[in-house]
Write a structure and sequence with these properties.
Largest sheet: 7 strands, antiparallel
Structural class: alpha+beta
Order of helices and strands: HHEEHHHEEHHEHEEHHEEEEEEEEHH
Mean pLDDT: 94
Number of strands: 15
Number of helices: 12
Helix content: 25-40%
Low-confidence stretches: none
Radius of gyration: 19 Å
Shape: globular
Length: about 280
Amino acid sequence: MKNLLAHYRISRKLKKIIKGTSIGKHLFWYDTKLKKALGVRGVFKLLFFSLKSHKKDEIAANYNVKPLYFGNPIGDGINQSGATVWNYTKLNNPPIILDDPICKILEENSEEIIKEFNENIQQIVTHPDNDSLAENGDWKGIFLYGVGGKVDPEIAAKFKNTFKMLEQIPISKNFGFVLISKLTPGVHITPHCGSSNLRFRYHLGLEIPEPDKVKIRVGNRWQTWETGKAFGFDDSFEHEVVHSGEKDRVVLIVDTWNPSLNLDEINVFDNPVFHQFGKAV
């Protein structure tokens, strides 16, 4: 009951934030339009779910997040966004972007980022999704921005120039992460869709010794990495990674706001209440 009362209070705050916008009509929370989720029926639906359902969001649990509700995504993830939690159907962005201003910022700073990674490689730990998504190998990482935009001061001190570069980028702290991601040879990251299409994910190659043997599929398209080169993709589309090489692959992952969002929408979605909504306190 404590969680439901807290959810109701947060729902009222969110209702005020989106008032006067069309966001509630186009934004889905799991399988429910936000406008309906914020109403009385939405609260009763969540109450019924909490009493009757045993469904869980396994990926959210990997980050110690406990959603109060869980539903099937509204998109198939191939032809349109399959975002598992937040799906803003108003957006019409391409699944992959190979060249834009953010790619340029990442590439211009790649040498310094690679240097700081090599100096602090001992900071790498097992990725929270390793057991859930990685087959036949290990997925490890160093989180620069964690859940809700949290930063470890010790990590920030070790990656000073990387953090300075990140100040130039509109990071989506409510819905994304910034991390260095390392895959060992033979690993397969199984097909899955990200939690939100409000973010857009960029990869910068830091250590790609076998560019022809490691690739990612986004929707129906396959893409490879190169050391010092960047590309962006909408990770709410179904994606998987296949590593058929014999050496580690390392990339910097940066989650920004979806490029199809306007500044007014970003200002709304940047409110911390979106990160708090629908979670156990």
